[in-house]
Amino acid sequence: MENGVLLEVTDLNIEFHDHIIPETVVYDFDLTLREGEIVGLVGESGSGKSMSALAIAGLLSRKDMKKRGQIYYDGKDLLSISRNELRSIQGNDISMIFQEPLTSLNPVKKIYDQVEEPLRIHTELDKEQRYEKVLKILKEVELDDPEHVMKQYPHELSGGMRQRVMIATAMIMEPKILIADEPTTALDVTIQSQIVKLLKKLNAQRKTAILFISHDLSLVNSLCERVLVMKDGYIVESGPTKQVFNDPKEEYTKKLIAAIPKIDMTKVYRNE
Amino acid sequence: MKTSKKKNINFILGISVISVMALFILCGKILPLRDPNAIDASLKFASPSLKHPFGCDNFGREILSRVMEGSFSTFLIALGTVFIGTFFGIIIGALTGYFGGVVDEVLMRINDAIFAFPSILLALLFISLLGPGTYQVVIALGIAFIPSFARIVRGEFLKNRNMDYVKCAKLLGASDLRIMVIHILPNTLKVLLNSVLIGFNNAVLAEASMSFLGIGVQPPDPSLGRMLSEAQAYLFKAPNYALFPGLAIILMVLGFGLLSDSFEK
């Protein structure tokens, strides 16, 4: 695809078919994600942010939901390729981290096994090579004492550590796209800023494109180059973050921006 | 704090009772006792004594060695039953719980149909098809036990399949089989362990009742249920004949019951 476009979503519509009357939750969703770019997706709860993200990640059930439109990645339409083909892209090229790191980790498996999982699925590396890689990525997400953390269970870690482990799991295959679905919502503010810095670092070092979903506008403002604003399943406004935040066109965006608390968090995040 | 202490006591008691039973069975295998099937008319209804600690039965057979041997076969049958029930229960429960849809509907309706019959009746049905005998009892009881295990496992899989960690595993490209076996199954073990222990109890009782009805272990081999049913006729003449096999059943059930209690929330 031309000039570094990684992912191109056009006219994505998502319909629920698990009730008698079909219900559309996302209308005409368009998104272009370029290499190394961080794009924000904001909107209130129930606006369809997560649904769009799950669709891109290929996580929506194929049975109960109808999806129309195209999600082009690497010349392939993710909506029409087979389950097996999709599986080779998932985790390998497209990864995702979720809002609640505790439920995203398997409670009965040690951290090492969880971080190692993608290597077992996608690569033929032997035990030592896998260990090396896991150790390296755990260091990279700035976990203290990674050798010890490896042997622990999720419930023994703090929220911030869990989210770091999640990021490690998502990043170990060096995906081209990382979808972050409200990764900091369940964390307190100081940990939030650390996680955001970490995501920024990974983005800068590895050129991973990040789709950052949040309802924290100040975070999005400090992190993302472009932003999409969603409401009731529609994208109501999109464009470079500065433009959208300084000169919002839509009434809804204006209201959202007006709702940001007045402390200037951008300074806190940008002071690196 | 109080509850955890109580749990602990249950655990210790349960383990002790089970150990005593295990030791008892083991003694029967190791000690040079009289052959449980050896008949000696001169010892007919001998009272408990140093030489015959549990006394002798209506054929002059040593009750001690018969109870030991009977406990052993009951234990093995219960183990086999639970194994069959758990193994197929997990497979059916996992498939129905994880995939849902048509597979779920079909398998669970069959399950319901089997569930509708009391397990003893169902086991009787299979015995009448397979003929009486030790292995047949294991198969019959095992099949009768599958539905309850399947239901428990299905519930757990249903609960876990929509959890974030399963979504994550899917996203990492894990196959359905991998998710079921490596991710969800270990999470069901807590619930499964409990039902295995309770199932073990039910299996001990079911085996005893089947032997009592004369369709389990075939004579002259000893079985706790069969001994009880024979002892019935001599309840006043030789109460020790009924007492000891009954005690063995009680201890076995009590031990595993206490253990399963200690694992409960």
Topology:
The complex is a heterodimer of chains A (about 270) and B (about 260).
Chain A: E1 5-16, E2 23-34, E3 38-43, H1 49-57, E4 65-73, E5 76-77, H2 83-89, E6 94-97, H3 101-104, H4 111-122, H5 127-140, H6 146-150, H7 159-171, E7 177-181, H8 189-206, E8 209-214, H9 217-223, E9 226-231, E10 234-240, H10 241-246, H11 251-258, H12 265-270
Parallel strand pairs in A: 3-8, 3-9, 6-7, 7-8
Antiparallel strand pairs in A: 1-2, 1-4, 4-5, 9-10
Helix pairs in contact in A: 4-5, 4-7, 5-7, 7-8
Chain B: H1 2-30, H2 63-99, H3 101-116, H4 119-130, H5 134-161, H6 164-171, H7 176-212, H8 224-231, H9 239-263
Low-confidence stretches of chain A: none
How many helices of chain B? The count is 9
Q: Write down the Rg of chain B.
A: 22 Å
Instruction: Give the distance, in angstroms, between the N- and C-terminal Cα atoms of chain A.
Output: 34 Å
The topology string of helices and strands of chain B comes to HHHHHHHHH
Residues in helix, % of chain B:
over 70%
Task: Trace the largest sheet of chain A across and list its strands.
Answer: 6-7-8-3-9-10
Q: Kindly state the mean pLDDT of chain A as a whole number?
A: 84
β-sheet strand percentage of chain B: under 5%
Give the CA-based shape of chain A: globular
Oligomeric form:
heterodimer
The total strand number of chain B stands at 0
Structural class of chain B: mainly alpha
Point out poorly predicted stretches of chain B: none
CATH topology of chain B, what is it called? Answer: MetI-like fold
